[in-house]
Amino acid sequence: MGSFRFRKSINLGGGVKLNVGKKGVGISAGVKGARVSAGPSGKRATVSLPGTGLSYSKKIGGGKSSHSSRSNPTLNVDEMTSKQIENRKKNLTIFKFIGIAFALLIVILIIFT
Length: 113
Description:
Organism: Paenibacillus odorifer
InterPro entries: DUF4236
Number of domains: 1
Region (Disordered): 58-80
Pfam families: DUF4236 (PF14020)
Protein name: DUF4236 domain-containing protein
């Protein structure tokens, strides 16, 4: 059985778009080939090769964290569990990805402006 879909994108200028859909309202910014968006389903970074139909999209930021990982954010590495260490590594990887995507976006804007 099919499902009803609704999506409308409003260009606000400067590479910023307001996206309205069935699940809610979101916003995205970027240029053709690189975009970062935030909406009801979370934050996402997307890189594509325009005209090819090929793209890579990754959810950025985290979902809901357990209270135990937020209870004492100043734990020493010796006191951290392996799960907490892995979570910190994952967060660092996400920040690296955002930084690289942002740098790529700036380079693209400089080249095409």
